[in-house]
Amino acid sequence: MPKVIFIDPEGIEHRVDATVGQSLMRAAVDSQVPGIEAMCGGNCICATCHAYIEDERLATLAPPDATERDMLECTSEPRANSRLCCQVPMTEALDGLIVRVAASQH
Amino acid sequence: MNAPTPPPTADVNALYAAYDHLDPPIGPDGTPCAYFEEFRDAQIATKQPVGRSEKHGGFWVVTGFPECEQIIKDVDGFSSAGVIFPKYAVTEPLMLAEQDEPDHMRARRLVNVSFMPRSVQQYGDEMMRSVHELMDGFIEDGKADVGRILADPIPAIVTALIMGLPAEDGPMFDYWTTAITHEFLNDPKAAQPKIEQMYAYFDKNIARRKIEGGTDVLSSVINAEVDGDRLTHRELLGFSTVLLIGGIENSAKLIGSALWRLGWDVELRRRLIRHPERMATTVDELLRYYSPGTIGRIVRRETTIAGHTMKPGDQVMLALPIANRDPREFPNPDAFITDRTNNRHLALGTGLHVCLGGHLIRMEARLVISEFLKRIPEYEIDSNAPLKWTTGQVGGMSRVPIRFKPGKPRGTERGKGVDAWLRHATRP
């Protein structure tokens, strides 16, 4: 089972098991990673699962669609490596991915 | 009008039978919190998170956290058509709030980005200016009703800004909102012309935007295409109404309850002044503790929860202020914890229908509380003036009389919105 390393807003690391095909958001919520609120449950409407993907592997992800891009621009601290975790499906190739949870979702 | 708080031994079925979300019993502290705690205790002791109320023709009441969460997330099994119960006396359907999929999502996409954190931050400066101008209006007096002169005006001024409407119309929004959400129940004849006046106001504003365009949320809704169609005029009126009610009611009640709590909870107030970094988690704790809104659903697919079978067409009310005190979800639920972690309260809903204005209400509360405490760090509730908890589908402290050491106004020129409010609030 591939693993994701979430770094929460306090800087604490959480090594989380993720099932292939499930979203990074679901993996984080199932393991209660602090800072991932995921209020809307993965429908890309609330932007409360905002996180930063490690630069080295960002390009290996399918890019965000127009809806996600619009949402990301309006998060409180958007960066080039911003993603909504609910829109990133887990793959074997992403094993060991480092994801930094945004300091605030509001 | 309010029933006395039931004795501690009240049996859970009697509590359910008498449950009226529009009129919870108010305790000696002026809030229904003790009643919510007692109901929660009975619910936990008997393991009955669901029951049947005999009020308003009968409806299901859900008081448990996991059960409420299950229903809110089950958008196929439970329709949002029952979100408001009994229904408001509006003739146009409430967009978003009363819609189910796929219509809800189509409508939500039209306005969603306008309510994201960065989008609402652009109103921060104007909001801060308004807070200080309002405070200038009473800071020399050493007393004020900060429910009426701070908690009510700020959400109305901000809603006007977002919708691109004149800030000085704020007191009118408050008047219409009260007619729709409260007055129609007790005095429908008095409420009806006010609701018609509101529709006429929006007719005019919609027509003007169709010609002139605009960058505000209302203009973007008017000019948006949904699946190749424009929204109908009735849908636009429904959208306007929902943005108005949604923007004003919850925020005003949350801020009112917060300023009341900080008025007597000296320790909490001083802790917040010393630790401003806890403001964000404190606001979420305020949302949990004083959950302003209660929401309903209509059963679409037969569902059995905690041994009760709900049939299609049944009305269900989710008692969010009770669910948000469920020890199965919140350790030490009756304690107000400024840095509570994993605070998954349902005050703003969850899932697909999670509150559109969730980021905005948090920002309003954070900003009002922190700016207020900068200028009035020490104050107390004035026991000589009336305190009022307004009940209803959205409830909270609405009259918050306080006393404090008089201060100096900052003397900036008053904006039109604030000016209108100060004139409105000083009327007898």
Automatic annotation (TrEMBL), chain A:
Family the entry assigns: Belongs to the adrenodoxin/putidaredoxin family.
Task: Provide the cofactor list for this protein.
Answer: [2Fe-2S] cluster
Cited PANTHER family: FERREDOXIN-2, MITOCHONDRIAL (PTHR23426:SF65), FERREDOXIN/ADRENODOXIN (PTHR23426)
- Tell me the first and last residues of the signal peptide: none
Q: Does the keyword Cytoplasm apply?
A: no
- Domain (2Fe-2S ferredoxin-type): residue spans on this chain: 2-105
> Which GO molecular-function terms appear in the entry?
2 iron, 2 sulfur cluster binding; electron transfer activity; metal ion binding
Ordered alphabetically, the record's keywords are: 2Fe-2S, Iron, Iron-sulfur, Metal-binding
The reply on keyword Ubl conjugation is: no
What is one process in the GO biological process aspect for this record? P450-containing electron transport chain
Recorded superkingdom: Bacteria
The protein, known as:
2Fe-2S ferredoxin
UniProtKB/TrEMBL annotation, chain B:
Which SUPFAM superfamilies does its entry note? Cytochrome P450
Which one of the record's GO molecular function terms can you name?
Answer: monooxygenase activity
Pfam families assigned: p450
The record's comment on protein family reads:
Belongs to the cytochrome P450 family.
* Protein name per Swiss-Prot or TrEMBL: Cytochrome P450
Biological source species: Panacagrimonas perspica
